[in-house]
């Protein structure tokens, strides 16, 4: 019964985490760059997550680090997931559309495959190669598309930066797979976010100080509160917890909720529109990723990428 309960909690956790992450795309666009810079918003979000991680010491016992080499990986997690992924996503969204960013983000499982092959912990198969080619072709159409409300060159740069964020996240999930399975989720977050906050403060503190908070309207304040409180600590805890009980291939499927939710919310708010070329490209990305995921149906061997 406990195993069934844990699996149920894992599935519910994945749904909730991806729902929170999906809302990031239009919400970040509402905040940046008009009211806050991506550096200021990232610094605030990671700092809040660090405070929550430190407060957990009052409620959850400390877990001892088992190996000295794990400390290096904890630092790597802070750089890749706490700093690079966060900054790349926010800077990229500033220059592209929420729909494009959410579609590009679905390339995570394909990138995990490529990185896993590079590190000789996975191998290509015909189905994986076909899926990878279809998915990357769809993403390329999205990146090179001139549709949307931003200038073509700025959009291209924004899409590329979002892609770098997904690369950072995918690399971290391959490199940190054993760490995730060996430690409790709270232990990883206790190391990751305080270290990431220390790394971000020298670069983002000035942006926070120079933000004109008095000029931010009340309705945007609610969006900022959401952006700095919810997307970092809680969803990543749910993701790491879920990977202990659900196969990575199953968790990958839940990630496809993000572009659907982000697109619906963006269109409803009048921030973006789903053109036919981006619609077809997104279908190509989904088909490609599903082919890769299906290739692991009987032999799962690589984790999915994380959120923020």
Descriptors:
disordered C terminus; mainly alpha; 308 residues
Task: Explain what this protein looks like in three dimensions.
The protein is mostly helical. The chain has 14 helices and no strands. The chain has helices at about 1-30, 40-55, 70-95, 100-105, 110-120, 125-145, 150-175, 175-180, 185-210, 220-230, 235-240, 250-255, 255-270, 275-295. The protein is globular and about 50 Å long.
The fraction of residues assigned to DSSP E strands is: under 5%
Give the fraction of residues assigned to helices. over 70%
Give the class from helix and strand content and strand pairing: mainly alpha
The shape, in one word, is globular
Radius of gyration: 19 Å
Number of strands: 0
The number of helical segments is 14
- Main sheet properties: none
In N-to-C order, the SSE pattern is: HHHHHHHHHHHHHH
Tell me, rounded to a whole number, the average pLDDT: 81
Given as residue ranges, the uncertain stretches (5+ residues, pLDDT < 50) are 300-306
What gap, in angstroms, lies between the N and C termini? 32 Å
Task: Please sum up the structure shown.
This protein is an all-alpha fold and 308 residues long. The chain contains 14 helices and no strands.
Topology:
Elements: H1 2-31, H2 38-55, H3 68-95, H4 98-105, H5 108-118, H6 126-144, H7 152-175, H8 177-182, H9 185-209, H10 218-229, H11 233-242, H12 248-254, H13 257-268, H14 276-295
Helix pairs in contact: 1-4, 1-10, 1-11, 1-13, 2-3, 2-9, 2-10, 3-7, 3-9, 4-7, 4-13, 5-7, 6-14, 9-11
């Amino acid at each position: 019964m406990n195993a069934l309960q844990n699996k149920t909690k894992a599935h519910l956790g994945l749904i909730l985490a991806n729902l929170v992450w999906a809302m990031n795309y239009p919400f970040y666009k509402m905040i940046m760059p008009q009211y806050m810079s991506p550096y200021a918003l990232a610094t605030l979000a990671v700092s809040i997550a660090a405070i929550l991680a430190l407060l957990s010491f009052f409620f959850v016992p400390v877990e001892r680090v088992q190996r000295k080499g794990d400390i290096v990986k904890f630092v790597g997690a802070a750089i890749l997931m706490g700093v690079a992924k966060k900054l790349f996503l926010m800077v990229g969204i500033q220059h592209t559309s929420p729909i494009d960013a959410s579609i590009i983000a679905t390339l995570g499982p394909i990138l995990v495959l490529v990185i896993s092959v590079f590190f000789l912990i996975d191998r290509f198969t015909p189905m994986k190669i076909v899926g990878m080619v279809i998915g990357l072709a769809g993403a390329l159409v999205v990146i090179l598309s001139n549709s949307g409300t931003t200038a073509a060159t700025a959009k291209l740069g924004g899409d590329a930066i979002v892609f770098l964020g997904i690369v950072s996240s995918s690399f971290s999930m391959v490199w940190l797979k054993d760490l995730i399975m060996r430690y409790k989720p709270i232990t990883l977050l206790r190391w990751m976010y305080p270290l990431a906050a220390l790394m971000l403060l020298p670069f983002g503190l000035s942006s926070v100080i120079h933000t004109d908070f008095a000029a931010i309207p009340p309705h945007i304040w609610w969006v900022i509160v959401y952006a700095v409180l919810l997307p970092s600590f809680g969803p990543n805890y749910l993701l790491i917890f879920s990977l202990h009980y659900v196969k990575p291939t199953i968790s990958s499927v839940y990630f496809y909720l993000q572009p659907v939710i982000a697109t619906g919310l963006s269109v409803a708010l009048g921030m973006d529109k789903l053109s036919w070329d981006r619609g077809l490209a997104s279908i190509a990305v989904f088909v490609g990723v599903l082919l890769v995921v299906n290739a692991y149906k009987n032999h799962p061997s690589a984790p999915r990428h994380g959120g923020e």
